[in-house]
Amino acid sequence: MINIMKGTKDLLPQESYKWDMIEREIKEVARLFNLHKIATPTFEHTELFLRGVGDTTDIVNKEMYTFEDKGGRSVTLKPEGTAGVVRSYIENGLSQLPQPLKMYYETPVFRYERPQAGRLREHHQFGVEIYGADTPQQDVEVILIARTLFHRLGITAPELHINSIGCPTCRKSYNQALKAYFAAKQEELCPTCRERLQKNPLRILDCKEEKCAAIAADAPSVLDYLCADCAAHHEGVKNLLTKAGIPYSVDDRIVRGLDYYTKTVFEFVVDNIGAKSTVCGGGRYNNLVEQMGGKPCPAVGFGMGIERLVLTMTNVGASFGEVPSPDLFIANVGSADDAFLLTCALREQGVNAECDTMGRGLKAQMKLSDKLLSKFTVVIGETELKEGKAKVKRMSDGTEEEVSLSELANYINVKKG
Length: 417
Ligand code: ATP
Ligand code: MG
Known about the structure:
Layout: H1 16-32, E1 36-37, E2 43-45, H2 46-53, H3 58-63, E3 65-68, E4 74-77, H4 82-91, E5 101-110, E6 122-131, H5 136-152, E7 159-164, H6 168-183, H7 191-199, H8 210-216, H9 228-243, E8 249-250, E9 262-272, E10 275-284, H10 288-291, E11 299-305, H11 306-315, E12 328-332, H12 336-348, E13 353-355, H13 362-371, E14 376-380, H14 382-387, E15 389-394, E16 400-404, H15 408-415
Parallel strand pairs: 1-5, 7-8, 12-13, 12-14
Antiparallel strand pairs: 2-4, 3-4, 5-6, 6-11, 7-9, 9-10, 10-11, 14-15, 15-16
Helix pairs in contact: 1-5, 2-4, 5-9
């Protein structure tokens, strides 16, 4: 027997309705906000992620699934959703479409991480990508998309944490300040952070090592180094969030694990019974399209982990909707073919009907109908077929009504509620 690979998960038939429910809500939110779906391949040239995600990030340095294909190309399984969308935007000339171009995706994501609760090597993300707009409204709309989905899924109190990490102009002076601060404490930093100090000191703020985090807690705040443009944008976002009645807190330690962010970054954190968990992370990346070879184009978006959504919904006791079940179970006494054909005919009339296909006796069929949580059950035998009518039993209270077989579909469609 060959087992599943570490850090991966099967989506089992008895659980998949939860994902279906989340996907339905994603589609509804996409409809409300006029987002169009984009899907890009699961694997791309490794170079795309080196350039797109940034070569000082953990994702690129430690976590990518990279291999050589049979043609000798270096290939990488998507470690995040944005780089592929940026490539597609440029390659397909999507800047010709009306801007802002508002897109969403659902994708598997692969990262070689240490597996633990809510941390997998293959997980799935719902993501939003909006290209062309550089206003605070666009940031707030993106935040609202995530918040609307949380609310629709019964996650009513996600904490919104925001920050601004500025642009390359303000980053220069901030990096200098960080370098000066951390250089004095170099000996106490982990080896990776000592390297980061040279290449990208901002990354130290994202280090998960306790001693590095403790040192980073007193590091200079990025908010003191924003240029006039970035500071105004940050104020604009805060003001609009307040006007829109969206509670938030500013956390100047948020830098996010990807190099491409500029200006706004944000996270939605949920108190997951005990541990706090980030369910959604996003922000603005105004230079990424240009950096990847396109014409300059501001962009903003987020990624949300579906597995963490399911975990969070379970922990807060949110509803996944009704467990799918047949509207009508058609049992038979010695007329399995007739029951089968009637079932097929009802399906053609839009009824979610089911019957036995394993030669069960009547008692076992009734048991099956119960297990499947059928809403109605009818027994078809010689008499029923001859008379063209049968007793339909409502399973919730056991009441029965005689219904003509030709009216069965209508009856179920009206009565199932
Ligand atoms: P974390 O800080 O938890 O590692 P991250 O900053 O790496 O998250 P992003 O790259 O922004 O996360 O991904 C967006 C979302 O995808 C996260 O908020 C989380 O819900 C989910 N996610 C990220 N990594 C994993 C993983 N290994 N397993 C499951 N879900 C994940
Ligand atoms: Mg991570």
